[in-house]
UniProtKB/TrEMBL annotation:
Mg(2+) binds at residues 68, 280, 282, 284. It comes from Knipowitschia caucasica. This is Phosphoacetylglucosamine mutase. Residues 459-530 form the Alpha-D-phosphohexomutase C-terminal domain. The lineage of its organism: Eukaryota, Metazoa, Chordata, Craniata, Vertebrata. Belongs to the phosphohexose mutase family. Catalyzes the conversion of GlcNAc-6-P into GlcNAc-1-P during the synthesis of uridine diphosphate/UDP-GlcNAc, a sugar nucleotide critical to multiple glycosylation pathways including protein N- and O-glycosylation. Pathway: Nucleotide-sugar biosynthesis; UDP-N-acetyl-alpha-D-glucosamine biosynthesis; N-acetyl-alpha-D-glucosamine 1-phosphate from alpha-D-glucosamine 6-phosphate (route I): step 2/2. Residues 187-287, 301-440 form the Phosphoacetylglucosamine mutase AMG1 domain.
Length: 547
């Protein structure tokens, strides 16, 4: 269709997806996210934007309908760029622009993007669409599809998939299958085969070692575990809880709940010492935990996962005789003990970025091997092209001794088990399970690598969270004036303390993080900083109470 026909179509359909006048939404940490009732026009418009991005890049683009860790009544949308990564920041600006254009200004806003990006409108857009299990997701993903087709684009609806599965499909499609086959089956085959090959290096696994208790957050991850588990059942026996059959999505369960509350999810009977993990609502995050014989809860979060993976990789690189530079990328939420351990004991490069996997991903790409994890369990490992080539070359070399052969085989299959496009709970789980089995390591031994500093995360409601602006990878607040000085003064009161405050990009709250020498002190500091937020940044509702 020519350009004026395309615009006529857009006009016709956009009237069926009207924007509530005056509503303003921002593209946040991971796309738009708010109550599902407010999102129909956003979805339609993100379908339009994805079509434009596809025309611009002449590649397939992904759109995932999900609000991940948010409550069931919310929804959201994430855009996926050609290599499977989050959409590039300059286009987030266009997303916000389109989202907030009043109905009569939409065409002009679209034309603006087309002109600025010099988009060739005759290219036929291709968009992959996926959705999570929320009750609102089916209708909202229809709105995305309508947006794509209004611009004459082709779309493929993958239906119910995890967010990282959709990222994977986009990458497979745009690498002409080099990264894998762009189907859910292809995804399971690639990951599970690599997992089983890794497990060949694990000797004498006990039944305990093979058993994992999994909390599916009553979301899409649970469905996908069910689909996948038969492929690996010989080596991994999963007891699935919170599979969505009765409980509510993310309610008192899931990775975010477990991480923030530092307690086991409801809906799981946990035996002492048993290895457990939780996915979040779209299965891009995972955290592990166990409860000891005294009933004490132990969390193994993204920092512990990054430590386990980077330790394992470093050992393999030494055995393989490969000189590759490796770094771990974290955010301000990383426990101070983890950073110290990685830098001082492991002698690894550690970098800190703003919250949001897009930021971590970008920094991880600067290294041969970039292990990135947010403390909340969102992360993966990136291998540069040259790192992959070196591993492959070593693997193909017939003159290796046995230790090198083993290391090369492990490295190669580690690369294959990892979803390098984005954090992926299923893939991370397989990698972690493989590492523990290969090392013959229990969850308790893993936990003992270093001891977390006691910490606390709180949320504070304010009238407008944008009054808080941060710098230095969100570790310091620059506004409101004098606010950081108050935090500094509070932090000084406690030994080994650290605290920071930042506006959430996925929920309408300000997040507070504090750590200190004891749990009492971490709790007290978090409370005092919350009060400072409430008083200096326009708190609403009741004043925060002590824990
Ligand atoms: C998203 C992002 C994560 C981020 C989290 C919380 O996760 O992908 O990188 O850590 O939101 O962000 P914020 O603190 O800004 O609310 P998910 O799993 O909810 O998509």
């Amino acid at each position: 269709a020519n350009m004026s026909d395309q615009f006529a179509e857009v006009n016709k359909h956009s009237s069926q997806h009207p924007k509530p006048p005056g509503l303003v939404l921002q593209y946040g940490t991971a796309g738009f996210r708010t109550n599902a009732k407010l999102l129909d026009h956003i979805m339609f418009r993100m379908g339009l934007l994805a079509a434009l991005r596809s025309k611009k890049t002449q590649a397939t683009i992904g759109v995932m309908v999900t609000a991940s860790h948010n409550p069931e009544e919310d929804n959201g949308v994430k855009l996926v760029d050609p290599m499977g990564e989050m959409v590039t920041p300059s286009w987030e600006g266009y997303a916000t622009l389109l989202a907030n254009a009043e109905n009569e200004d939409l065409l002009a806003a679209l034309k603006d993007v087309i002109a600025k990006e010099e988009i060739n409108m005759s290219y036929e857009a291709k968009v992959f669409v996926g959705r999570d299990t929320r009750s609102s997701s089916a209708a909202l993903s229809q709105a995305v599809l309508e947006g794509v087709s209004s611009f004459g684009g082709l779309s493929k609806d993958y239906g119910l998939v995890t967010t990282p599965q959709l990222h994977y499909m986009v990458c497979c499609q745009n690498t002409q299958g080099k990264y894998g086959e762009a189907s859910v089956e292809g995804y399971y085959n690639k990951l599970c085969q690599a997992f089983l090959k890794l497990l060949k290096h694990a000797s004498n696994c006990t039944d305990d070692q093979k058993h994992l208790s999994l909390d599916g957050a009553n979301g899409i991850g649970a469905l996908k575990v069910r689909e996948m588990e038969h492929n690996v059942a010989k080596e991994l026996q999963i007891s699935l809880h919170n599979d969505g059959s009765t409980g509510k999505l993310n309610h008192q369960c899931g990775a975010d709940f477990v991480k923030v509350q530092q307690k086991a999810p409801t809906g799981c009977e946990i035996k002492a010492g048993e290895r457990c993990c939780s996915f979040d609502g779209d299965a891009d995050r995972i955290v592990y935990y166990y409860s000891d014989s005294e009933g004490q809860f132990h969390l193994l979060d993204g920092d512990k996962i990054a430590t386990l993976i980077s330790t394992y990789l470093k050992e393999l690189l030494i055995q393989a005789g490969l000189n590759l530079n490796m770094a771990v990328v974290q955010t301000a939420y990383a426990n101070g003990s983890s950073t110290r351990y990685l830098e001082e004991t492991m002698k690894l490069t550690v970098r800190c970025t703003k919250t949001g996997v897009k930021h971590l991903h970008h920094v991880a790409q600067e290294f041969d091997i970039g292990v990135y994890f947010e403390a909340n369990g969102h992360g993966t490992v990136l291998f540069s092209k040259s790192a992959e080539d070196k591993v492959q070359k070593l693997f193909d070399n017939p003159n290796n001794d046995d230790e090198m052969k083993r290391a090369a085989h492990l490295l190669l299959n580690t690369i294959h088990v990892v979803n390098q496009t984005v954090g992926d709970a299923l893939s991370d789980m397989l990698l972690i399970e493989a590492i523990l089995a290969i090392k013959g390591m229990t969850v308790q031994q893993w936990d003992a690598i270093y001891t977390d500093l006691p910490n606390r995360q709180l949320k504070v409601k304010v009238a407008d969270r944008r009054v808080i602006d941060t710098t230095d990878a969100e570790r310091r607040a620059v506004t409101p004036a004098g606010f950081q000085d108050s935090i500094d003064a509070l932090v000084k009161k406690y030994p080994m303390a650290r605290s920071f405050v930042r506006p959430s990009g996925t929920e309408d709250v300000v997040r507070v993080y504090a750590e200190a020498d004891t749990q009492e002190n971490a709790d007290a500091l978090a409370h005092e900083v919350s009060l400072a937020v409430y008083r200096l940044a326009g708190g609403v509702g009741d004043e925060p109470k002590p824990l």
